[in-house]
Amino acid sequence: MAAGPPPPLGPPVLPAFPEEGFGEKFMRKTRENPLVPLGCLCTVGVLTYGLISFKRGNTRQSQLMMRARILAQGFTFAALLGGMAVTALKSRQ
User: Where is the HIG1 domain (predicted)?
Assistant: First the structure.
């Protein structure tokens, strides 16, 4: 067993982004993982259409849109996890 320096105990060093505002951070994150904002927009669109259908009394269409909303949320969550996995793999290399 080779004796070497002990492993660092502190948190890992994260990349620093100098004075990044909300807009710049949003655009950077969107470029890194474009499927998450797309999934969020789809979820909001389906939810809105479902609520409009509910208000108009079209319960069949409303129920269909609520089920579609669940699928859109699942897609968004999968895209988020996929983006995190890709980012983790890139940081290891």
Answer: 7-93
Phi-psi region of 19 (alpha: psi -120 to 50; beta: other; left: phi over 0): left
Coil, strand, or helix at residue 41?
helix
As a whole number of angstroms, the distance between CA 77 and CA 85 comes to 12
Tell how far CA 29 is from the center of its chain.
9
Phi, psi of 28 (to 5 degrees): -65, -45
Sign of the C-alpha dihedral computed for residues 82, 83, 86 and 92 taken in this order: negative
- 36-80: per-residue pLDDT in tens? 999 999 999 999 999 999 999 999 999 999 999 999 999 999 999
Phi/psi-derived region of residue 57, left when phi > 0, alpha when psi is between -120 and 50, beta in every other case: left
